[in-house]
Design goal:
By secondary structure, the chain is mainly α. Helices cover 51% and strands 6% of the residues. The structure holds zinc ion (2 copies).
């Protein structure tokens, strides 16, 4: 699958931050996803982005989330630049740096939705495409929140 189709995804970026754009962005992702479904199943799942192979799909999704997707959570306190992948990491951060806080981490993008796209595609070849979309979601949120440093550093790690 050539990454050239991203042009289509980004062509919907007319007014970043508005719900309408968010909807059209996701629906264009879903259209491309439908085209990407190959139906090829392999006995052992090899990550196409590194040498790791997993026996079970669940292990592969955990691996992708940990190593190949941008951080999906951020610290809501103003002026704080923390980003991370897990709620318990945020709670540790909050305890240490925002002593009296009891907030949940805020979400940059829905990582379960991105993993769901990979599951639906049933092909490891889809991983880099989902990765590109996840970065697109981070950039969309960065514009929405005015956290422009995320545009330069979409990964957070
Ligand atoms: Zn990998
Ligand atoms: Zn913080």
């Amino acid at each position: 699958m050539p990454l050239g189709q991203n042009n289509e995804v980004y062509s919907t970026y007319k007014k970043p931050g508005s719900n309408q754009v968010r909807y059209s962005y996701i629906s264009s992702c879903m259209r491309a996803l439908t085209r990407a479904v190959s139906g090829i199943k392999r006995p052992r799942l090899h990550c196409v982005l590194c040498d790791v192979s997993c026996a079970r799909p669940q292990q592969l999704y955990g691996h992708i989330q940990m190593f190949h997707l941008p951080y999906s959570l951020y610290c809501p306190y103003s002026g704080c630049h923390w980003r991370g992948a897990r709620e318990d990491q945020f709670q540790g951060h909050q305890k240490r740096y925002h002593q009296f806080g009891e907030l949940p981490a805020h979400r940059i993008y829905d990582v379960k939705m991105v993993l769901g796209w990979i599951k639906a595609a049933e092909s490891v070849d889809f991983i880099p495409i989902a990765q590109t979309w996840a970065i697109g979601l981070v950039q969309e949120k960065a514009t929405e929140l005015g956290r422009y440093q995320w545009l330069d550093d979409s990964w957070g790690c």
